[in-house]
Recover the amino acids of this structure.
């Protein structure tokens, strides 16, 4: 089952990107291979750029406040597990507090490192990080794995509040949706939002030879399914495609 996700606003888009980048960084960090640690270094710059955006921080804190207000309204409901509710509210408080306490830009330690800046300026040059261009970087890649991992962990630590907050935000958002089985007739599916403002669309496909192209606005949700062909231009399929659709709005 392959799940495709479509964000309806900039905050959700940024949180999905952070999730993707942190997943890759953590995968490379766990390895002992210096070439995979090179990949982790490259991802640090992308994580730092997103984490430094003040507008995303403001949007995330406002969204946590809105979610907390919504959850507080359920405290008197007998249909809700009150222990789980209070735990979720506490998680939101903790995540928001950590984001608030991350004074200044969380990527400062990255942006102010001359060593990292030298690497960053050469990443887009073919072969720019070779031993002849960056001997200090080559020496680091040949240092003990414990030293390499410790350095990476030092650089990522200021960004961890973003990782925790993003994980919580996306978990609550994804849990808010209810999946339903639908069919894309002749490879296409459309649905009117019926006045609802969604934050995230999730599409689950069993056929891994297909992928979805999604567009959406306040009037119409539109999905097209195409055949994955690496050598030719992708073609819209003309058969019915069953899939699971989840529209999320916390």
């Amino acid at each position: 089952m392959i799940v495709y996700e479509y964000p309806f606003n900039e905050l959700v888009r940024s949180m999905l990107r952070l999730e993707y980048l942190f997943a890759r960084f953590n995968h490379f960090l766990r390895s002992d291979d210096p070439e995979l640690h090179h990949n982790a270094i490259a991802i640090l710059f992308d994580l730092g750029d997103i984490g430094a955006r003040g507008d995303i921080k403001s949007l995330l804190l406002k969204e946590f406040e809105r979610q907390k207000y919504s959850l507080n309204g359920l405290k008197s409901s007998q249909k809700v597990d009150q222990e789980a509710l209070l735990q979720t509210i506490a998680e939101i408080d903790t995540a928001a507090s950590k984001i608030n306490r991350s004074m200044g830009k969380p990527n400062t330690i990255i942006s102010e490192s001359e060593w990292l800046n030298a690497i960053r300026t050469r990443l887009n040059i073919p072969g720019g990080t070779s031993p002849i261009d960056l001997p200090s970087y080559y020496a680091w890649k040949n240092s003990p794995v414990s030293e390499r991992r410790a350095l990476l962990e030092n650089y990522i630590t200021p960004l961890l509040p973003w990782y925790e907050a993003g994980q919580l935000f996306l978990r609550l958002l994804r849990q808010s949706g209810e999946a339903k089985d639908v069919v894309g007739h002749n490879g296409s599916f459309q649905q009117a939002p019926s006045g609802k403002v969604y934050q995230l669309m999730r599409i689950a496909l069993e056929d891994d030879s297909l992928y979805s192209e999604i567009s959406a606005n306040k009037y119409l949700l539109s999905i097209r399914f195409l055949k994955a062909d690496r050598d030719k231009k992708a073609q819209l399929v003309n058969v019915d495609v069953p899939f699971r659709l989840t529209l999320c709005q916390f």
